[in-house]
Amino acid sequence: MAVRDAAQLGRDAYLPAPPKALAEASGDRLCGAQGCASGWMAPWKNRRRPIFEQEWGCSGRCLASLVKAAVQREIGDSGRAEEGGPHRHRVPLGLVLLAQGWITHPQLQTALEAQRANGRGRIGDWLTQGCGLEEEHITRGLGAQWNCPVLAMDGFSPTAMALVMPKRFVAEFGLVPLRVAGSSLLYLAFADRMNAATALGVEQMSGLQVESGLLTGSQFETARTSILEADAVPVQMTQVSDRDGLTAGIVRALEQRQPLAARLVRVHQYYWLRMWLETGAMSGVAKLPPGPGDMQDYLFVIGQKSGS
Fold it and tell me: Whole-prediction pTM value?
């Protein structure tokens, strides 16, 4: 069975092969590496894994070629890592709240003076603490500022949502996966600002359309804590020196674990490799695993201390 249709579908159309397709793939495969002179590899019939982005390499060299192309694709997208930065053209939150009639000019002035005097804190926090503004109004103001919806906690399951992404993203990028609607839409909730780069990476890895929105501060912390305490897909952090080291590290992980499906996505400074190790790991919604078993995440960082 040929497994080269990812090229026709495009880079974002990758899906782990369903169990039926895996069963049909028991015969010869067509090597997915460009420039492979082997064609149909009868001597390699027993090499059925690993599968990387719906492609199969007939040898370690061909697998490395597939990975190298994916690494170049992710590194070459240089603008993605900066998408989550501050938006310089947003209307200040204080003016948004003032225009809605939720605060007065004296209240805004008091909050700004307190913020300047202390040299820290967000204006919304000072309005809540010093002026008694309700948390809901702050969140609604942020929603107007970012032109995004304010989300509800209905349907939130930390057990399921902890499997969406590595916990490091939740802790570091200020977001929580909230719920899946209709088996096609994933809601991501942020605390006070959007992070387009992370949302894009999660969308590409999950195979679900991502809708980003905000939660109130207290609801966000509740959801965040619940996810960080839940079981997640095992993750291994790896530091590499350059793109060649990244390619070698990914190839080594693929050869060691022999996944039935794998995908590489860049999220800011992280290169996120997710593996589906057995057929049961593919039985969830889209590409979301039904549980942490038979799954493995790798986070690669180039030229930085990876931490734990």
Answer: 0.78
